[in-house]
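mind reviewing these tokens:
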Amino acid sequence: MIKKTSITLAGLALLLSQNLYAAPLRVAADPVPHAEILAYVKKIDPKLDLSIVQMSGGGINPNELLASGDVDANYFQHLPYLKDQEKALGKKFAVVAAVHIEPLGIYSHKYKSLAELPVGATIAVPDNASNLSRALRLLQDKGVLKLNATGDSTSTLLTQADIIDNTKKIKIIPVDSPQIPRSLDDVDAAVINGNYALEAGLVPARDALGLESAKNNPYANLLVTRPELVNDPRIQELAKDLTSPQVAEFIRKTYQGSVIPVAGPSHD
């Protein structure tokens, strides 16, 4: 009896190994550019049955979906945000690949240069800790204000309390990230994440008054899963696809510098 059971289990293992992609791989992603990039992966790798769950900034947290098992992976966030989420949710996630960078940008419907910003200008920035810190560093890099900035940009999170020189008396207004493009008419300028800028019809490489440098940028967008799924063949296949030269070329041609591919995978 034991021998027959062993054979049955071995046969099942062989069957599974021959049909690795029988179950769809459910991946939560922002519509632009993440879901668009995943749609391209579906086209070039049809044997990987991808089920793309698009997130539209409606209050659903892709990391909560991942932690609860409602999706198998997500693709929308950078490492500082992920670390902040792990603390907030009390969960541990696994980075499988670093795929692309979306440079953070400063935009305005009222002014054509940062030099035109008046005294007392209002600037909307993301309200979550990691992107608020990132936005403040960008404003400093572009000469809008000065920070008491020390340490690595991904491990040292800055707040408005770190502003030490604000000659123009700029008013920083934290806003929920997906809502910032809609607030452009109500403020003098806004710091917007690349994906939300693209969704709003902005072209970061063309429209931003100031754009984050891609060189040595620590904010690459990641493919993330649960620790127990890291070696799942479907996850590994998707990571291989997302970091392939073919997908990198698609990103370069499609987004023309507004989204920049990362050279290769990153296992953190």
Confidence is low (pLDDT under 50) at residues 1-7, 11-19, 264-268. The longest strand covers residues 94-101. The chain has two domains: 2-102+219-261, 105-211.
